[in-house]
């Protein structure tokens, strides 16, 4: 699932494991293997080929961490929180960049003109 909070849309794709299995090999596993079991249906292939390719990555090249503080000026201390019964120190992260790239060069002109708010679910 991919969530676009700005446009309030959710894009999702379901991977289904094929019910077809190959004969069992001597080791007790199928010779088809996991990749063979995840063969996409024709409908899934068409959906992928008619949708833009979106990649998202986190750029942490310039990231910095700083302990969060709590309290009033003069009475400040380092902030801690309880997480699953453990006392955890709280840090803030700065200069984290989320990069999203969309590739559409494989799409036909009518598909490129398709409204961007269309969900693929």
From TrEMBL:
Q: Which residues form the Ankyrin repeat domain?
A: 1-114
Q: Where in the cell is it found?
A: Endomembrane system
Instruction: Give yes or no: UniProt keyword Repeat.
Output: yes
Q: Which UniProt keywords apply?
A: Membrane, Repeat
Query: One Pfam match, by short name?
Result: ANKRD13_C
Q: Name one GO cellular component term.
A: endomembrane system
Q: Chief location of this protein?
A: membrane
Q: What is this protein called?
A: Ankyrin repeat domain-containing protein
Record the organism.
Answer: Hucho hucho
